[in-house]
């Protein structure tokens, strides 16, 4: 993204110089071509992510969760009491940014993690809590090689608006596990239905 902005700035500077040397209609055509190329690059980048999703081999995420918080687990009053005793009370606003592509009926927000509920079952878990680990033991601060060692090579590595991501898909269960990286370490873990 930064590279695209720098290229755009460079093009604007060159355009200013060209404006003094070349007639206006040629400059307009040149900038039109540049804008079309930038739009094309954006579309190709997004399309390649969709193609990778389709071609990516499925990774089994059966029974996946974080500590005792499991995907598809029934939410009971006992579970909520247990979570509050281990992780503190729920809060109105978490300290984390939660971006999900799935709608929840309700959610529970704790200081460092979030649980999304639909039909009284857990369908989303977002964590920045170092106490929470995935079923295979990955937690905040782990590196990419540790993730690949535990979950395998069938992942999508991409740069998103939220940062560098490593994503595994379980196509049979429609579950997605995403590790958001910062300085080559896990910063946030998102486990959700898709």
Describe the structure concisely.
With 194 residues, the protein is α+β, with helices and mostly antiparallel strands. The chain has four helices and nine strands. The longest helix is centred in the N-terminal third of the chain and has 32 residues, at 24-55.
Strand content: 25-35%
How many beta strands in the DSSP annotation? 9
Order of helices and strands: HHEEHEEEHEEEE
Helix % is 25-40%
Radius of gyration: 22 Å
Cα-to-Cα separation, first versus last residue: 26 Å
Enumerate the strands of the largest sheet in spatial order, edge to edge or round the barrel. Answer: 3-4-5-9-8-7-6
Number of helices, where a helix is a run of at least 4 consecutive DSSP H or I residues:
4
Overall spatial form: elongated
Mean pLDDT: 85
Q: What structural class results from the helix and strand content?
A: alpha+beta
Report the major sheet.
7 strands, antiparallel
Identify low-pLDDT runs.
none
Describe this structure in words.
- The chain has helices at residues 2-21, 24-55, 77-87, 144-151, and strands at 65-66, 69-70, 106-109, 113-118, 121-127, 156-160, 163-170, 175-182, 185-193.
- By secondary structure, it is α+β, with helices and mostly antiparallel strands.
- The strands form two sheets. A seven-stranded antiparallel β-sheet has the order 3-4-5-9-8-7-6, with helices on one face.
- Strand 3 (106-109) and strand 4 form a beta hairpin.
- Helix 1 (2-21) packs antiparallel against helix 2 (24-55).
